[in-house]
Structures are given as C-alpha cells and as structure tokens.
C-alpha cells in the first residue's frame, strides 16, 4: 500500500499568532510571513562551545568559608534580603 503525507491538521494552534490552522502549508506560510523558521526535528545549527562554570572552585570557596566560621543570615519566610 502506498504511503502519503496529508496536508490536513486537526485545528493546530500557532504559537506565533494564536490562530487555528487546519492545513500544514497555511501554518508554514504564516510562519514564513512573520519571519519565523520552522525547525521540526532538525538539530540546532549553532554548534558554538558552551563555557561551563567551574563548580569545583565555587564549592571549595564555600566550603572554606563555612570551615572558617561563616554563617549565613537566617531569613524569615517571604523576606527579601538587602544587597
């Protein structure tokens, strides 16, 4: 049996304009008119390396501060600390 891909949608709501669409081609046309790019299951194209924070250094600093006697202020629930 041959397979085919239908253009029919069952009332798909666009996240771009909030309208309901019943056609994939109409939905994609509206995305294009508004300047959006539909990626679907494509892999992201930005392959720039992500700089990870040095957690070990931060943890060691916190550990040494506590070992040196640092005690954080105890706040009441709902109170925002001042800078």
State the gist of this model.
The protein is of the alpha+beta class and 83 residues long.
Per-chain topology:
Elements: E1 8-13, E2 20-23, H1 24-33, H2 55-67
Antiparallel strand pairs: 1-2
Distance between the termini: 69 Å
Compute the number of helices.
Answer: 2
| Average pLDDT figure | 85
Task: Spell out the helices and strands N to C.
Answer: EEHH
Oligomer: single chain
Largest sheet: 2 strands, antiparallel
What do you see in this structure?
Helices cover 28% and strands 12% of the residues. It is of the alpha+beta class. It has a domain at 7-39. A two-stranded antiparallel ribbon has the order 1-2. The radius of gyration is 26 Å and the shape is elongated. The model has no long low-confidence stretch (mean pLDDT 85).
What structural keywords apply?
single chain, 83 residues, alpha+beta, two-stranded antiparallel ribbon, 2 helices, 2 strands, 12% strand, elongated
């Amino acid at each position: 049996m041959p397979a085919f891909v239908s253009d029919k949608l069952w009332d798909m709501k666009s996240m771009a304009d909030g309208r309901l669409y019943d056609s994939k081609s109409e939905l994609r046309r509206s995305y294009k008119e508004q300047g959006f790019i539909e990626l679907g299951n494509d892999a992201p194209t930005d392959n720039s390396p992500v700089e990870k924070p040095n957690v070990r250094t931060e943890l060691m600093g916190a550990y040494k501060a506590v070992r040196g006697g640092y005690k954080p202020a105890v706040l009441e629930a709902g109170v925002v600390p001042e800078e």
